[in-house]
Each structure stands twice: as structure tokens, then as C-alpha cells.
Specification:
This protein is of the alpha+beta class. It has one domain (2-77). It has helices at 2-9, 34-39, 41-44, and strands spanning 18-23, 28-33, 52-56, 63-67, 73-77. Strands 2-1-3-4-5 form a 5-stranded antiparallel beta sheet.
Length: 84
């Protein structure tokens, strides 16, 4: 879990930013600070069971993080220039 936390901390998302965190299979979402999400990752994501989507809407282009139950982490920035 420490390796994942280090990867998350290196993302271009400020720890103080409020993010929307979604658990699709539970049909639940919550707002929390990104730093809180990273600090409490082991309480908020169970690797063999949970998929979690984190959306940071601050700035011109929203950022999306997906952590799935197979421990794949995907991060991207929603760029409104595609498709054209």
C-alpha cells in the first residue's frame, strides 16, 4: 500500500483539493480532500473488491483517477479538445 500511496502523492493533484470519490458498485459517493483519501486509502479501497473513481474538478481541466479491484491505477486529465 505504501507504493500506491507514493504514486498517488506524486500525481498533479493538491492534497488540499476537495475531490468527489465514487464507489460504483456500492452506488455511493463522498466529497473529501485528496490528502485524506491518500492517507486513509486502506480504509477506502479494498484491493480485491473495490473499484474507486476520484474526480478533481479544480482547474481548467478536471482530473480523474480510477483504482480498480485488480489494483490497476489509471490517471488522466479530461481535455475538452477531443474529439473535434
Amino acid at each position: 500500500m505504501d507504493e500506491i500511496r507514493a504514486w498517488l502523492t506524486a500525481l498533479p493533484v493538491d492534497a488540499a483539493n476537495e475531490v468527489i470519490t465514487l464507489w460504483p458498485s456500492d452506488r455511493f459517493a463522498a466529497k473529501l480532500r485528496f490528502g485524506q483519501f491518500v492517507a486513509h486509502l486502506d480504509d477506502l479501497w479494498w484491493p480485491s473488491r473495490d473499484d474507486v473513481i476520484v474526480v478533481d474538478q479544480r482547474g481548467a481541466m478536471p482530473k480523474v483517477l480510477v483504482i480498480d479491484h485488480e489494483e490497476r491505477l489509471t490517471f488522466g486529465v479530461l481535455d475538452d479538445s477531443w474529439p473535434r
